[in-house]
Design goal:
With 201 residues, this protein is an all-alpha fold. It has two domains: 82 residues, Rna Polymerase Sigma Factor, Chain: A (Orthogonal Bundle), CATH 1.10.1740.10; 97 residues, Winged helix-like DNA-binding domain superfamily/Winged helix DNA-binding domain (Arc Repressor Mutant, subunit A), CATH 1.10.10. It is built from ten helices and no strands. The chain is globular, with a radius of gyration of 19 Å.
């Protein structure tokens, strides 16, 4: 199928597959490990941006490397009925980020004092737009730091990564009802520190 190397392996650079074929790529990678590179190429930048906003750019490099190494090692157990690998990968990354909770909370508190974006080039205040438009960055970061880890995970997957609550629940391995409860609780706490007139839902 498709062009092949002299050794018989498919060139993953020629696999311009749509997102719905993540499962197929992972299944193929069980026999041809090189094909897993297509999953990395598709999602590595997204995972890096997510981790960088939570931990800073230096730690994000390690999170990305560890996420895809773990995913590669677990590809044999990947459920082929799940066509998109995105929630699976974010779930791995979020669990790795959990090992750095203190670093994340320290970063959020620092940002609550400075208001600076953790990335060299801001990718936009997505949380501000979706959760409390035009809220002051410092107050928002302080509010995020005060959330419980579980509530913060759900909120940031939905707000920063544009996941549905169902996708966030899948990523975190929790029931959708639990994700809804955590999101409701997180939004309530955010509202408590952001004036109602600044919200834009």
């Amino acid at each position: 199928m498709g062009d092949r190397h002299p050794r018989g392996r498919t060139d993953v650079t020629l696999l311009n597959l749509p997102e719905q074929d993540d499962a197929e790529v992972i299944l193929r990678s069980r026999d041809d490990p090189e094909q897993f590179a297509a999953v990395f190429d598709r999602y590595a930048r997204q995972i890096h941006l997510y981790a960088a906003r939570r931990l800073g750019t230096q730690a994000a490099d390690d999170i990305v490397a560890e996420t895809f190494l773990a995913a590669f090692r677990r590809r044999e157990s990947y459920d082929p009925a799940v066509r998109l690998a995105r929630p699976w990968l974010y779930g791995i990354a979020t669990k790795l980020i959990a090992r750095h909770r203190r670093d994340e909370e320290r970063l959020l508190r620092a940002l609550s004092r400075t208001g600076a974006d953790p990335l060299p080039e801001p990718i936009g205040d997505v949380v501000t737009q979706r959760v409390a438009a035009q809220a002051e960055e410092r107050r928002l970061m302080a509010a995020l730091a005060a959330l419980s880890p579980g509530d913060r995970d759900v909120l940031l997957l939905v707000a920063w990564e544009d996941m549905s609550l169902e996708e966030a629940a899948q990523a975190l391995g929790i029931p959708a009802g639990t994700a809804r409860s955590r999101m409701h609780r997180a939004r309530k706490k955010i509202k408590a520190v952001i004036p109602a007139e600044e919200e834009n839902r």
